[in-house]
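Quarterly update from the structural biology core.
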Amino acid sequence: MNIIDRYRSWNTKKKTRKYLQNISRAINSRLESGRQTQEKWEKQFSWYEGIMIHRSEFRNKDVMESLKLIRDLNPTASMAIWNFLRLSNTGHELECLKPTGSKDKQGLDYINSLAKRVGALYGGGTDQLINVLHLTAFTQGAICLEVELNEGLNDVVDFHAVDPTSVDFRKDKETGEIQLVQKQSDGTYKVLNREQVFYQPLDPDIGDPYGRSPILPVLQVVFFQTEVLKDLKAVAHNQGHARFDISIVEESILKNIPPSIASQGEQAVRQFVGKYIGDIEAAFNKLKPDDNFIHPDSVKVEMTGGTNGKSMDATALINIINQQLVASLKQLPILLGLNETSTETHGTVQWQIYVAGIESIQRGVKRVIERAYNVALQVQCRQSKARLTFNKLRTTDRFQDAQAEQIETNTWIARVQQGWVKNDEAANEVVGHDAVAEPQAPVTTTSAISRSRRLQVKRQPKTPANDTEDEYVKEMQGDWVPEVAVLTTKAADDFYNLLQNQVETYISRLEEADTPPTRVLVDVHRFMYSNNRKDLSDVPKSFVDWIKSNILTDEGEQLELWDAAGFDWIEQSAKIAGMYNIMEIDTELVFDDTNDDFLRSLSDRSRRAVELIQGVTDEHVIMALWDVVFEGQYSVTKAANALREDFAFSKGRARTIARTEMVGAARTGQWYSDKQSGMVIGKIWRSAQQDRTRAGHREADGQRKTLDEPFYVENANEKFEPLMYPGDNSEASADNVINCRCWYKRILEGEEEMLD
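Predicted structure, tokenized:
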């Protein structure tokens, strides 16, 4: 290196140091120690040693007591609590783990013995104590538990559930520490030991450590319901029963006044009339329910109220209150006996959301119980940690679980057939004991996801099943290739049948539509004399609209047909490739083909593919019919023949679709199995290096990325697109994935230098 180069190197290093120093100085000048903001409760005045963090008015002790009362007396609220406690406490398992992660049997024996005697007040051990903690969490929005130790501090006396409203928080003025305190009988506050008293809030607000009750809104609903029921009671009392309407005819009385009374003047007449009316009233009041009416013609008896009266319809109002009760109690309507119409999908989603809410509260109880057990282990001089696991609530369909189990069984069958594991080993994994017979023929893998078959009944295979390997796929490398090659041939036959059904459907609509209307033909003739046929953009809009409104009228149905068929095939391909691929890394690993991310990616891939496939089909239909019109002498027969002969409905296109989707799905299965293995850290793009290999794919050869980073590959328009793996269509255009036979080489742990 000459003197000029050394000077340049020294000058560059000097500028770099100065730049970094300036950045450091700028950062340090902007950073400050301590907290800059204040909580709202820090400004409050307090009589005690620290700053009290007061509860909001809706979370004080009086409100919580009212909530408990309604919880126990209101039928709907009581049912909600009952359902929650039965579902949330479905049993649990305890584990005791050493710092190394291995199981501590002696520690587990100790906490199991402890579990039987804690919560003595409730008489049920840990299981009953968990029930109490769940109840306080659901009612008051917080969990509080204390660990009582013996005098020697070497054993646990009991675990005590503490009423969350009996403890408060305050900030120590000197240390700034947030303390958990409890008011004593003499008015002072005792600071509780946070190593023995644990407080777990549920959904706390900013600056509020007390937590929020999930069912607090029920107060407003129940109070309103009570007032409404009182009003309805009054209405029912006044209008709900038929009553006698008795009227006295004054004119008749006056006519029948004895002359001796009338001659005595107005006062005597008034007294006579009053006595007459009083006698009638007394007589009617003495009547029994089955007595007959006997009265003079001066008395008129009618009926009022009951069915003759009109009142408001309370049903709509009661339904609104019930809806508010369901929402405030965080329940499903069916659990409260309030059935509402819902689809199976919506019902499943609602149940999953409800279970997620239960599991959220369970996690709070889990943390508190584990901390209590850890204190017990600590005073026993053990370094182990307790782990509590609640039994899972079922959120999936038994049919889907059975399908998943069948796929796992078939995976073990495939391993036995390949000679990778022994028959007894597979039997022990599947049924828990040695095999009772020799291996039988493998079972066909079925779909793990039940797809809609409403429209597939229209598709009847026209060709027999083909078990030959597709030559295009057969040329690739990998243990999964032979099986996927056979699947590709079968998928191509299935897709061809679907295309044939499509073209016959379109032809039948052509026959129904007959010739295009005059206005369309006029536009066509004008276009014919002024333009040359080029592509779809040159076709008159009126002609395109006529095709779409008469021929291509069921795009949604066709998309569903393609999605239902395509998903089944790509799912099988992806699972086969994933299974073989992960066993190439380690024969002890098992590919989880029920993983949500994996299945979701297949569903998204299928949706994107069918939209592209149907879009191309629609364009071919329009252009094929336009060719017939452009040539003149349009007829339904010519149009039908043009559609039948078009490439869009040919075996060649069916093969192209099958090859693209099956190989792309196999690459999807490979990538997800590599990710699940935990041993693959990177990848290297490898192009097929054939005459038909795209220029962009050839240039990408050797590109190195981490497993979660996309490759960037140039498409036909000289734009770079991200592909997580060859065949990934999530963001790539069709010309970057159709008939692609590229692959990637794995970079495993310990081969980090290959990423440089």
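The longest strand covers residues 142-149.
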